Structures are given as structure tokens and as C-alpha cells.
Task: inverse folding
DNA sequence: GTTACACGACCGACTGGTCGGTCGGTTGTG
DNA sequence: CACAACCGACCGACCAGTCGGTCGTGTAAC
């Protein structure tokens, strides 16, 4: 594995653990490279965040593409939203974007595009754009709620509740 | 208005504008008090966050209490979630909680309690705990989505979509 | 009625520490 | 030699929290 990849992996893990992407020094140390080494691969903090986000978006794209073939995009979306690890990562990224002034315009745009892509996949499955938007937003809400660790309704009951409103009738 | 109140108001406004609660110095300056003056009223950054959150929670409690009498808790919940100002404030608070190490245990608990309170109000109205949870999470998702400024489906269509799944049948 | 004192509100310089980013230099490989 | 990968000391900005001090007011002793 290249050092660049190792840095990305480590940063991802630290972000999940800490709830936000830690300092560049911390990421460098944990990755086993010097600060200069990190800066060689990522010219700024924004570039690092960008890299982590790109990785996360790609992973979600792949998971949903596989779900399309299985015909359970909605379930996969909600299941991943409930996943501790993924939720933590997405929340950490959101925090890092919002908080620092290091948000790239390009990153925001790519993030918005990914969101639209995923919502379209859901819409293709449930056949109703409003339902698709609601399901996507429901997932985002689930992600955000893991901050306080609230009890969530089990996935099955949510899908059951969703049922009469989805599926091409 | 007391200086304490003025600080709280200013901090709230800055948080909405900035997407996170700014530094104590910035809040102090914008409030027209010195750093020491701010520290006199709020002994730590955590205390300030706590104060802002308490204010926000109280405002939401009042809005929902009024909605109960009007019988439109669900609509009010979603409408406030879509409100630019409220969404920005809640997101800023969430960011500040997650990011810094200054999250109070008490604050997290009070926040979780408020969440439960609101979800119960929704459940009372729609008569289905799963639907209530979904509606609450939907609102949270809407709040989080205003980061990227995605287009949201209009409130009316969401309520329309919700209709067959709510109301005591 | 004035002097003395206590007290809360408020001030702003300062401290200790963190962080993003820079830079001159070294290593290793084609 | 050239060039990319990598190192780590260093810089300046910033930030939360501290501290010694000022000022106005209420209160009580004389």
C-alpha cells in the first residue's frame, strides 16, 4: 500500500474515532509519516478532507450500485445510515466541512452531486421522487442522530412502515 | 437587556452565520463586552454552548407546545426543520458539540431528553411510534442537508406523502 | 452624613498550548 | 544528474482560559 493510501486509511479511522478529522500532525504521526511527508501527498488540510470524502463517496457509490442489482437500494441506504462506522465517518466529514474554513467549493459540489445520484437510485426503485427524497433525508437524519446515541427504531419496522408508500403500485 | 442575554443573542446570531460557534474572543467583541466580561457570565466555552443550546431547546419546546393546541405538530416540526435560521442554528450547535472536546455530559442528556419529548408529541398526533420516529428523523435529515443547500421537496408534498401513514386510522 | 468595606460586573493583557502551513535539506531510484 | 518522496524544525496565527485590577453600588458602622 502506498503511503498516500495509508494516510487516507488512517485519517479515516481517526475521524471515525474522534468525531472529526484530527490535526495534520496527529494524522501524520498515526500514519507513520512525518508532517512533511503528509504535506507532500496532501498540499493542505482541505486536500486531505477532500481525499477522505472522495473515498467515502466512492464506497457509498459501490455499495448502492451493488444494491441496485439486488433490488434493495432503500434497505441498503437505511442500513448503511444506521451503521455505526459509516455514520461516524459522514458526520466527522460534515463537522470538518462546516467548522473549518477549509471547505473546497469543488468538494461541496461533488458531495451534492453524490447526494443527487443516490436519491435518483432510490427514486428508480420506489418510483416516487417525493418518497425517494424522504427516504434519503430519513437516512441523513439517522446518521446525525448517532451523535446522542438515541435509540432508533429497528430497520425492519421502518421498512414495514415505508412499504405502503413505495413500490410501483 | 442584560449583558448575559446580549451575549447569548449575539453568539446565536454568529453561530447561524458562521455554521459553528465562533471563538470566545469573537463572541465577546461582537457582543460589546471584553473577554473577561464574557468569562464572567460563562465560565467556559462549554458553558456558553450550554446556554445557547438551552435557549434553542426552549424555543423549540414552545413552538411545539403551540402546535399541539393547533393540532399540527408534524407540520410544525418539518417546517421548523426547513427554516433556514433554525436549521443553521441546530447544525452549528451539533458541529460545536461534536468537534470540540467541550461537550458537557449534562448537555448531551438534556438534548436527548428534548428529542424524546418532541418525538412523543409527534407520536401523540400520528398515533404510531414508528411513524413518529421516522418523521423526527426526517426533520433531522432536512436540517443536516441545508449544509450543501440541496433542493428539498416542498413541505406540502412531503405532508401529502406522509398522509396515508399517519392519523389514527 | 460620611467613611469604610464588601461585592458583583467587567476589563484586557497575558499564558500555555495547538494548529496549518513552510522550507531547507536528505534519501533513494531511474 | 534529476526528480519525486520524505523529513522535522520552525513560524505566525489563533484560541481557551487566567489573573490582577477597576468601577459603581449597596450597606453598615461611627
Result:
Amino acid at each position: 500500500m502506498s503511503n498516500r493510501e495509508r494516510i487516507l486509511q488512517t485519517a479515516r479511522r481517526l475521524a471515525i474515532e474522534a468525531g472529526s478529522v484530527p490535526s495534520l500532525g496527529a494524522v501524520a504521526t498515526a500514519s507513520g509519516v512525518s508532517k512533511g511527508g503528509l504535506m507532500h501527498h496532501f498540499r493542505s488540510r482541505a486536500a486531505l478532507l477532500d481525499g477522505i470524502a472522495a473515498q467515502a463517496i466512492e464506497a457509498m457509490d459501490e455499495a448502492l450500485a451493488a444494491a441496485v442489482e439486488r433490488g434493495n437500494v432503500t434497505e441498503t441506504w437505511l442500513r448503511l445510515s444506521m451503521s455505526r462506522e459509516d455514520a461516524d465517518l459522514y458526520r466527522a466529514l460534515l463537522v470538518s466541512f462546516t467548522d473549518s474554513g477549509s471547505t473546497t467549493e469543488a468538494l461541496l459540489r461533488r458531495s451534492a452531486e453524490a447526494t443527487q445520484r443516490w436519491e435518483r437510485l432510490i427514486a428508480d426503485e420506489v418510483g416516487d421522487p417525493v418518497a425517494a427524497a424522504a427516504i434519503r433525508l430519513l437516512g441523513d437524519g439517522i446518521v446525525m442522530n448517532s451523535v446522542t446515541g438515541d435509540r432508533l427504531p429497528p430497520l425492519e419496522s421502518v421498512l414495514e412502515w415505508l412499504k405502503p408508500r413505495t413500490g410501483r403500485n
